[in-house]
Amino acid sequence: MTLDELKQVTIDYYVNLQRIKKADTENNPELAYQLRVVKNKLASLGIPSEEYEM
């Protein structure tokens, strides 16, 4: 997998988690944790997560 492919997969995963968060009406600690992890991965790839937040 190339770096560009890795970036795209990570962005797609983050966006999907954002959709789940928007649809989820309850407190979900696992979802919150996964979002934090992916935000850190995006940051390590030099991608600002704020551009993809809903």
Summarize the structure.
The protein is mainly alpha-helical and 54 residues long. The protein contains two helices and no strands.
Structural class: mainly alpha
Strand content: under 5%
Low-confidence segments, given as residue ranges, are: none
Structure annotation, total helices: 2
**What string, H for helix and E for strand, traces the elements in order?**
HH
What average pLDDT do the residues reach? Answer: 92
Largest beta-sheet details: none
Radius of gyration, CA atoms, in whole angstroms: 11 Å
- Shape estimate: elongated
End-to-end Cα distance: 28 Å
Give a count of the beta strands, DSSP E runs of length 2 or more: 0
**Fraction of residues in helix:** 55-70%
Protein topology:
Layout: H1 3-23, H2 29-44
Helix pairs in contact: 1-2
